[in-house]
Design brief:
It holds the Pfam family PARG_cat_N. This protein is α/β, with parallel strands linked by helices. The protein contains 18 helices and 15 strands.
Length: 478
């Protein structure tokens, strides 16, 4: 590798397929722009164009593998194949061919891959790359982007044609907490989680290719916004003595329990059970709620490049996201089941992270109440779909997180559809809790006191769960 002032020239082995696209002398060198203040860069030279324009000549996986190796800046990785990608392509072809007689001849390499290359080449026509901002921590602000420009970036990511200053998100000496948009860890892995996530990405490109007018040209812009809760704006939960849940009809409209999935309710507001490092800063063979959400709404992946991690007083919103894939399962049972219907259904995603430790410490209680408040407040929609936010991988108590979201919904005037994910005991317990809150006519101030003092109660009664303490205090209130 020979660096100079403005670029890096990276020597790579030639693939036979590339002789069809440009001269061997030129293709022996790939010109790569240095990272700029934008923190990532797309290779956009004449050589790159020649390679991508030659995609139409590709007929099989081995040729695609050679192309992807050319785009890998780390030469040590070029000895590995991409079994996850290979199986995903085969599975997606099988799915599309099974959709009806008119699709029986579908061939990924003939019908879809050239389209993805076309989208990647649009980087040379787009002003986006030159003006893409960083949405930094503690800096409130919005960034509006056209779906076509996001598609261009995702297409380059498909070809491993995005390089970043951060090669390993977990490196200890990194200066900033931004993520990496890199599908390599999915491509090289044979796990079902990898394969299914790649299939979701192919579903995105397939629908973009077949419904471009609706999903790209005529569609509203996507807006990424960082929201910060200032000290002046922070709710005083302890002083909300006049806000209660005594109106049963109103209380049951504030939070509506159901045992389906969050996606089963066609609300526009949708809560992402986020990590403070959005999507953990990388794309790996894992399928938590947030990772499922990003795979089904792939335009969300842009946040990895432009959004720094969240502080304790921040959330992000992504307005105008489209869901492309239907699925079933969770974690290692996740499975792509088809193209999402209705076509073009948009959601406004609320990226709000919950704590993963010390859940009942008063300062943590307040933190997550404020997170839910800030998230609900900053989407214009009246109705929001949520669920066991802060539970699962984050280890939170499902009753505590329910009460926190109930309080936040009440104060912000929202109506939350609360999914229990087919957990019969959970919906039974939460229904009982809601009924007790209504009948006790308890105020938010009093609920806040109960949440904040449970840690003292548990110090004396180590086997008592939060729901036991809450029941006791609600009964005492009656």
């Amino acid at each position: 590798m020979i660096p100079n002032n403005n670029n890096i020239i990276d020597q790579v082995p030639l693939s036979p397929i590339l002789h069809k696209t440009a001269s061997a002398e030129k293709l022996f060198q790939i010109h790569v722009h240095e990272p700029t203040r934008h923190r990532f860069f797309i290779k956009g030279t004449e050589i790159t164009r020649a390679i991508l324009e030659g995609i139409e000549e590709i007929e099989e996986y081995e040729e695609l593998q050679d192309i992807l190796h050319l785009f890998q800046t780390d030469a040590s990785k070029r000895r590995f194949g991409f079994p996850g990608l290979e199986v995903a392509i085969e599975s997606f072809e099988e799915y599309i061919r099974g959709r009806g007689e008119e699709h029986k001849e579908f061939d990924f390499y003939q019908h879809l891959l050239p389209k993805i290359a076309q989208y990647a080449l649009e980087a040379t026509e787009s002003e986006l790359i030159e003006r893409l901002p960083l949405i930094e921590m503690h800096q409130q602000g919005s960034f509006t982007v056209k779906p076509k420009d996001v598609r261009c970036i995702l297409a380059n990511a498909f070809f491993l044609n995005i390089s970043s200053e951060i090669h390993n998100f977990m490196q200890k000496d990194r200066e900033r907490d931004f993520g990496v948009l890199d599908f390599n860890r999915l491509y090289v892995c044979r796990l079902e989680e990898s394969i299914e996530r790649i299939i979701c990405q192919l579903s995105y490109f397939y629908q973009q290719a077949n419904h471009e007018q609706q999903l790209c040209i005529d569609r509203e812009d996507i807006v990424f916004t960082r929201h910060n809760l200032t000290v002046e704006e922070e709710p005083n939960w302890a002083e909300m003595k006049d806000i209660d849940f005594s109106n049963a009809e109103e209380a049951k409209s504030i939070i509506k329990l159901h045992d389906g999935r969050m996606e089963d309710i066609l609300c526009r507001g949708f809560v992402d059970f986020a990590n403070r490092f959005i999507h953990i800063g990388s794309i790996i063979p894992s399928l938590t709620q947030e990772e499922i959400l990003f795979s089904c709404c792939p335009e969300s992946f842009l946040t990895l490049l432009i959004c720094e991690s969240l502080s304790d007083t921040e959330i992000m919103t992504m307005r105008g996201m489209v869901r492309y894939s239907e699925y079933k399962g969770y974690l290692n049972t996740f499975e792509f089941t088809g193209l999402y219907e209705p076509l073009g259904h948009t959601v406004d995603i609320i990226i709000m992270d919950a704590i993963s430790r010390k859940h009942f410490q008063p300062e943590m209680i307040k933190r997550d109440l404020n997170k839910a408040y800030l998230g609900f407040k900053n989407v214009p929609e009246k109705e929001i779909t949520s669920g066991r936010w802060g539970c699962g991988q984050f280890g939170g108590d499902f009753v505590l997180k329910f009460v926190q979201q109930l309080c936040a919904a009440k104060v912000t005037g929202k109506s939350v559809y609360y999914s229990t994910f087919k957990d019969e005991q959970c919906i039974k317990d939460l229904t009982e809790v809601l009924e007790s809150i209504i009948s006790s006519k308890i105020t938010i101030s009093e609920l806040y006191y109960i949440m904040s003092t449970y840690h003292e109660y548990r110090a004396i009664n180590s086997k008592a769960y939060f729901i036991d303490y809450l029941r006791q205090e609600l009964q005492r209130k009656k």
